[in-house]
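This section describes the prediction task in plain terms. A model, or a person checking by hand, is given the sequence of a single protein chain and must write out its three-dimensional structure as a string of tokens. No templates, partner chains or ligands are provided. The sample shown here is typical of the held-out split.
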Amino acid sequence: MVEQLQGRLHRGEVEVIIGAKELGILTVVIDDRSVRNLAEALLFNTNGVIGVLWLTKIAGYYGKLAAEIQKIDGNRRSEKKSRLEQQIFFDKNVEG
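The expected answer:
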């Protein structure tokens, strides 16, 4: 499997997928959409950063996390992610 993944993914992504396979983990957290697609093809459930943020809201931790997210440099986040964060953290219906 390492040979199949090498060259297509970054080392950390390879380690996540192989480690999950070796440990029998069914769900992996990967931010890159193309890598999530590959992981899903390998029969993993996947979650990205926005999904993790949503889970923090469900678990009741979103207040503290939302304040930290707002400190992040806005230039490093896409407009789509910003809209999703508004929906996730503040229950705002943001059109876009």
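For orientation: The radius of gyration is 16 Å.
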